[in-house]
Specification:
- The complex is a heterotrimer of chains A (about 350), B (about 300) and C (about 270).
- Chain A has about 350 residues and is of the alpha+beta class.
- Chain A has two domains: about 230 residues, 3-Layer(aba) Sandwich (Rossmann fold); about 120 residues, RNA polymerase II/Efflux pump adaptor protein, barrel-sandwich hybrid domain (OB fold (Dihydrolipoamide Acetyltransferase, E2P)).
- Chain A has ten helices and 20 strands.
- Chain A has a six-stranded mixed beta sheet with strand order 6-7-8-3-9-10, with helices on both faces.
- With about 300 residues, chain B is an all-alpha fold.
- Chain B has two domains: about 60 residues, no CATH class; about 180 residues, MetI-like (MetI-like fold, Orthogonal Bundle).
- Chain B contains 13 helices and two strands.
- A two-stranded antiparallel sheet of chain B has the order 1-2.
- In chain B, β1 and β2 form a beta hairpin.
- The longest helix of chain B has about 35 residues.
- Chain C is mainly alpha-helical.
- Chain C has a single domain, classed as MetI-like fold (Orthogonal Bundle).
- Chain C is about 80% helix and about 0% strand.
- Chain C has 13 helices and no strands.
- The longest helix of chain C has about 35 residues.
- Chain C is globular, with a radius of gyration of 23 Å.
- The chains are: A alpha+beta (about 350), B mainly alpha (about 300), C mainly alpha (about 270).
- Chains in contact: A-B, A-C, B-C.
Chain lengths: ~350, ~300, ~270
């Protein structure tokens, strides 16, 4: 098959399992983000893909060929490092031409390719500059051009934008995504920033505790988190302890709620967690009770202008509801409100 | 997860090759140090137990004759003087070097480099040349005496050496660049915001310096002092040329044994004793500073 | 404001006094070297380059200068050659054996000169290899080994490890990464270590004197022997040459390397 196939890869550092039995397949031309908190193993996984780290167990294959034992300098996957790792003793052009020099290209070929790449990353004519003379965003672009110079089969980026300020980061994200679409290159980006992952990736692998917690399109992960870890890490979720009654009914405190039908047979009639996004909860005044409703007391209101965040105490649990200003009923702290939980937005996850 | 690989070497690159490469790298340096450091050190110790024969000769043995000779009040007095001299030099030179290093580390880059070049140039100058320069400077016809006479401080031109003060000043001169350069990294690492924070809480600059900066640099200052002691306890040429016989040190005794009287075993025993005393002092200071500092 | 001004004046005054103290002996020696007569008076009574002419036409002094330069050049090359694999093994492989070797090197540097001199004179005596120039070269290179080890370690540590990994991902093997990334980054540090060892070896007299002093006359040995026997005006010229050589060497070092960093400063410094 075409693409990158990671199967059952495990990596331990001493007693610590950094990557724990990870399998993943990335089709040719896709943009994948490894997303997770620090220490979740995402960088280790990327370093194993690059060949900078050797898996303890498992295998990695590219286009059907096993490359597990291939060293980094044979794989030649272009990589942008978190620190960028630009060579301080070389100029911009010499940095970009580094892999070309290793390939034995002559000066003219190198110059043509460097010009082409610098134009691609919108730094034309900068090849004579010293790296130290560049701004943060420019360095970023040089690092990208340098990694692309060898026309790598896979393009890897390890938290490349973490040092940039918010505005520049957004610009670079858009630029990178456009570049990737144009070159149709299989790309993996490691990040802890869910916004970055959501806005760029075709697919996201959410990682936690050395495992892939969920792999799928950004929207499917957001809409249907597979477990509490993902629900918590991607966006905000209300997580409520419930008791499962049947495949689409649960009990929360004294309330019986209908939920989206459970696909996997959850431990029948056991304890589980109900996850619902704050923006999916519909708030109504105290007397408008209906189906799938719980009541709560308003503890705190934060009017952000574009939305209103309402914290409620439901059966001793803090529940957050985000409502549009035009739907906001205008209650005050201490009032009782009713929360309607639409059946299809209520997902039951293993406790 | 960002900076995982602390040692550069990761196991990605054939771990079984490492020991071979390492052995190849280190074989020459190991051989070099065994032949030129460990064997000579062993010989020195062996020499101190050897049997002395006439005409500067000796024969391997296991005698304590030399060490018994060290137990005489004569040698002990010289040893005591050597350490007193070294400690005095240490106190004076550290007191002088500390503010200098502090001020240099706060200068502009160009000024810093100028100072560093100047210090390195004097640091590298042979003790021979510095002692000679002091001989000229302190002599009756040198510039200093003339200036003092002209200022009326001195009534009649006469040489300012040999005496204890001349030895002292020259030793301070010798170690000063070392100590300034030794303190320089610690001083440049000092965060200026910390004394500034003390100032915002009402401390005067001098008080901030004494109560905040000084405790922070206590460790480096102590190490610097120790370094001076190590450097000067074996001093030889300075006390020989600028001092009187009362100011003789163990260093002079050792060199006399080696070069003049030809009693190599005794000189070796004196050298072993000197180094042992130094190591003992080092251990003592370490022990004391560990006991004195909370949980470190 | 007034207080700040006073502090500035005090600081400047103090630093000037220290600078004067450091410069005074050197200035006096340089001044005396221009004396017309045989006496060492300062300021010089009559300016003359007589003793310079004498120095540079004296075969003995010239031979000593040549011997000194030969010894220092060889000692610095040997010391740096031995130090390089040690510092590299510490950095690259975190090797305990290499750390031990580095420790031995720096410990040796801390021993008093008289002790090491005695140690080496005994060593070469037992070897039956007395009075040779290579004794001085080897003794110097091992005594000064701690310096290049420390300086090269600073250099290696300044190479970000991601740089090597980046080179690997671009197709460079170990040897190429060393040649294209490590070596260019290390060049200034190697040069600085060479210069530093050269200057210290150039000025060392006691070991040189005790292992080969009767047959090998380096410049400091000549100054040392005349210091013990009596004043000779050409000595001043020799001293001046050493002062200038040292100053030139360290100015060169400041030009090729980042001197504040080499001396242990980690924070960046404004120009």
């Amino acid at each position: 098959m075409f693409g990158l196939e990671i199967s059952k890869v495990t990596k331990a550092f001493g007693a610590h399992l950094a990557v724990d039995d990870v399998s993943l397949s990335i089709p040719q031309g896709e943009f994948v983000c490894f997303l997770g908190p620090s220490g979740c193993g995402k960088t280790t996984l990327m370093r194993m893909i690059a060949g900078l780290e050797q898996p303890g167990e498992g295998s990695i294959a590219l286009n059907g060929r096993d490359i597990t034992r291939q060293p980094a300098n044979v794989r030649k996957f272009g990589m942008v490092f978190q620190s960028l790792a630009l060579f301080p003793h070389l100029s911009v052009g010499e940095n970009v031409a580094f892999s070309l020099r290793l390939q034995g290209q002559d000066a003219r070929q190198r110059k043509a390719r460097v010009d082409e790449l610098l134009t691609l990353v919108r730094l034309p004519g900068m090849e004579k500059r010293a790296v130290s003379q560049l701004s943060g965003g420019q360095r970023q672009r040089v690092a990208i051009a340098r990694a692309l110079a060898q026309e790598p089969p896979i393009f890897l980026l390890d938290e490349p934008f973490s040092a940039l300020d918010a505005k520049l980061r957004e610009e670079m994200q858009i630029e990178l995504r456009l570049l990737q679409k144009r070159l149709q290159i299989t790309t993996i980006l490691v990040t802890h920033d869910q916004r970055e992952a959501m806005s760029m990736a075709d697919s996201i692998a959410v990682m936690g505790d050395g495992k892939i917690q969920q792999y799928g399109s950004p929207l499917s992960i957001y809409r249907a988190p597979a477990n509490t870890f993902v629900a918590n890490f991607i966006g905000l979720s209300n997580l409520l302890p419930v008791e499962v009654l049947d495949h689409e009914t649960v009990r929360f405190g004294a309330n019986i709620l209908k939920v989206a039908p459970m696909t996997q047979p959850t431990s029948a009639r056991g304890l589980a967690t109900l996850s619902i996004r704050p923006e999916d909860i519909q708030l109504t005044a105290a007397n408008g009770a209906g189906d799938n409703t719980v009541s709560g007391r308003i503890t705190f209101i934060r009017d952000m202008g574009s939305s209103v965040e309402v914290h409620l105490d439901c059966d001793g649990r803090d529940v957050l509801s985000v409502v549009q200003p035009r739907d906001w009923m205008g209650a005050g702290t201490g009032d009782i409100a009713h929360l309607r939980l639409p059946q299809n937005q209520c997902r039951v996850l293993a406790a | 997860m960002t900076d995982l690989a602390v040692p550069l070497k990761t196991d990605a690159e054939a771990p079984d090759r490492d020991p071979v490469v390492l052995a190849g790298l280190l074989s020459l340096p190991t051989l070099f140090l065994i032949v030129l450091c460990l064997i000579p050190l062993f010989l020195l110790v062996q020499l101190s137990f050897a049997h002395r024969e006439d005409g500067g000769l000796w024969r391997a043995g296991l005698e304590l004759t030399q060490y018994r000779q060290l137990m005489t009040p004569q040698f002990l007095k010289v040893a005591l003087f050597s350490f007193t001299l070294a400690l005095t030099t240490a106190v004076i030179s550290v007191a002088l070097a500390f503010p200098v290093a502090y001020f240099i580390s706060r200068m502009k880059r160009r000024a810093q480099i100028t100072w560093l070049v100047g210090l390195l140039s004097t640091l590298s100058l042979s003790e021979v040349l510095i002692v000679f320069a002091f001989q000229v400077l302190l002599s009756g016809s040198g510039g200093l005496v003339k200036t003092l006479v002209a200022l009326g401080v001195m009534e009649q031109a006469h040489s300012l050496y040999p005496n204890f003060a001349a030895v002292m000043v020259c030793l301070v001169y010798l170690v000063l660049p070392y100590i300034i350069l030794f303190l320089y990294p610690a001083m440049s690492q000092l965060d200026d915001d910390i004394p500034a924070a003390a100032t915002t809480m009402g401390a005067s600059p001098a008080r901030a310096f004494l109560t905040v900066v000084a405790p922070m640099v206590k460790g480096p200052l102590l190490s610097a002092g120790l370094l001076v002691v190590i450097f000067t306890v074996g001093s030889y040429l300075t006390p020989l040329v600028l001092g009187r016989p009362q100011q003789w040190t163990v260093g002079i005794l050792i060199s006399n044994g080696a070069m003049t009287t030809g009693n190599l075993p005794l000189a070796a025993a004196q050298a072993v004793a000197l180094v042992s005393l130094m190591v003992g002092l080092l251990g003592l200071v370490r022990l004391l500073s560990r006991a004195g500092s909370p949980a470190s | 404001m007034n207080e700040g001004l006073l502090a500035t004046i005090l600081r400047r005054g103090f630093l000037s006094l220290v600078a004067l103290f450091i410069a005074a002996p050197l200035v006096v020696v340089i001044g005396v070297s221009f004396n017309e007569g045989r006496r060492m008076t300062f300021p010089p009574s009559d300016l003359s380059l007589k003793w310079y002419r004498a120095f540079f036409t004296d075969a003995g002094w010239m031979k000593s200068l040549e011997t000194s330069l030969t010894i220092s050049t060889l000692a610095s090359v040997i010391a740096v050659t031995v130090a390089l694999p040690i510092a590299y093994a510490v950095w690259r492989y975190n090797s305990k054996a290499a750390k031990a070797l580095a420790g031995v090197g720096s410990g040796l540097f801390l021993l008093p000169g008289v002790v090491t001199a005695l140690m080496f004179s005994a060593f070469w005596g037992v070897m039956g290899h007395v009075g040779r120039i290579e004794n001085v070269v080897l003794s110097h290179s091992v005594i000064l080994l701690g310096i290049p080890v420390a300086m090269l370690s600073v250099g290696f540590q300044s190479i970000e490890k991601a740089l090597i990994e980046a080179a690997h991902t671009m197709g460079a093997g170990d040897a190429e990464a060393f040649r294209m990334v490590v070596r260019p980054a290390m060049t200034p540090y190697i040069l600085c270590a060479l210069v530093y060892v050269f200057v210290l070896s150039l000025n060392e007299y006691l070991i040189a004197y005790m292992v080969a002093g009767f047959s090998v006359q380096t410049l400091p040995i000549r100054v040392f022997t005349s210091l013990r026997s009596g004043y000779e005006p050409t000595m001043c010229v020799g001293a001046v040459i050493f002062i200038l050589l040292g100053f030139a060497a360290f100015s060169l070092l400041a030009a090729i390397g980042d001197l504040p960093k080499l001396m242990g400063r980690h924070r960046p410094l404004e120009a």
